[in-house]
Design brief:
127 residues; mainly alpha
Length: 127
């Protein structure tokens, strides 16, 4: 064996040790990737049913909102009808009531001024 052969054997041994030392972190990194793959699979398996439930909840909520919209439209119609009815009652009953009130006030004023002897709006001047 010559000196070049021994140097080649030493270099090959050092290279083998270097490869062995670098293989350990690569092997550990492979285990980390395996754990990461398992975690992603678990998240995916847990997320799929959750998304299905959210979809069902949103669908049910939309149905309920459609019902609420119908109720709100009916309440709006009822409010408009009550408003029209109150305007009709005010126009029908309000005007005669105002006239009756004015007439009764006039009669009361006439009776009280007739009892005093002088009209309420006119006063005598004293000289």
């Amino acid at each position: 064996m010559s000196g070049g052969d021994i140097a080649g054997l030493i270099a090959a041994g050092v290279f083998a040790v270097l490869v062995a030392l670098l293989a350990i972190p690569v092997w550990k990194l492979g285990r980390v990737f395996d754990e990461l793959r398992g975690a992603i699979r678990a998240i995916s398996d847990g997320t799929t049913p959750l998304i299905d439930e959210v979809t069902t909840t949103v669908t049910t909520t939309n149905e309920q909102l459609r019902k609420v919209d119908g109720i709100a439209a009916n309440v709006s119609d009822a409010t408009a009808n009550v408003s029209a009815l109150s305007s009709l009652v005010a126009a029908t009953v309000g005007s005669p009531l105002i006239k009756i009130a004015a007439f009764s006030y006039g009669v009361r004023s006439a009776l009280t001024s007739g009892a005093k002897g002088t009209p309420e709006g006119k006063r005598r001047r004293s000289r």
